[in-house]
Amino acid sequence: MSVKSIINEIEADIQDVINTEFEYSDTVNVPSANDPSLSYERNKLKKGKRLETCVLYVDIRNSVVLNESHRSKTMGRIYTAFTKAIIKAGREHGGHTRNIIGDRVMIVFPKENCFSNSVKCAVTINHIATRILNVKFTGVDFKCGIGIDFGQLKIIKVGIQRNGTEGPENKGLVWAGFPANIASRLTDLGNKTITETYYEVVRNPINPRAIKGNFQFPSIFEMINNPDRNQGYDPNAPFYLSKTETVEMTESEFAQSFVMYTHKDEYFTSGGKMISFKRKTRTINYPPILITERVYRGLLTISPSIDVGKSVFWNEQKHQIRDVSDKVYGSHLMWKI
Q: Which domains does the chain have, with CATH numbers?
């Protein structure tokens, strides 16, 4: 087939996807790529599934460094042992392995008991990584990070139909939705130490009364915490408040704050008039298991007596994690065996 022919065929496939509708049916079970109710054929209604549940990702820490420090034979053994262990741990706790990409494994759980099953699975994985893999492979600092989130997933089949041994390799499932993205993001940070630079800025905040615009009636909370706003716009009000505030900014936020605006023949940085700033660094140590508040609250609500849900085992992560709006809780939990 010529290049022109294959490009024309691909263009027709894309147009087919645009023209046809997608239909999702609710399920409480985890579909597989061979699920007959999932479809991806051309000129047909595309059928998918919708599942509200927990998603768990697990990933080896510092795999690049491990590969550089150890022989390929050793790494082959580590990857084989790790993947086999994760699949069995997932199956033991009712989960289904649905993606293996290098050293990252995705496990999806049926909706029933998904909170307790996913968290127990995470504890088992952390136990295996810390007490077994890290001990059996001497001279290897083996660690892994685990992330779990809960929410709605839309599952669709993608790929093409091929016969023979290449068939399974040319089709798969896409798990669209925030739970998969957030769980993966938490996995990136689990069992990792992050050193970041930030800026501590002292400034006079902008006076809300000096800003003319679409005034909205303040809430009771705002009236109590920001009494200056209660009086509305005043053209004679000073542009900055006399009080000072100290705020923390990331490097990006600090740089962007220097975007200048003009006002009454003077310039100011966004947020207020800067008095001083300090460049600082801090180290953040994330535990191996990270779960969102949705998972934690679900665990306490559905299984209030479960041991792994005790508050003594979980600490709220005070540092804001990029792309994660929910609170995050972390743990070093392992089993007592």
A: 17-192+286-331 (3.30.70.1230), 196-283 (no CATH)
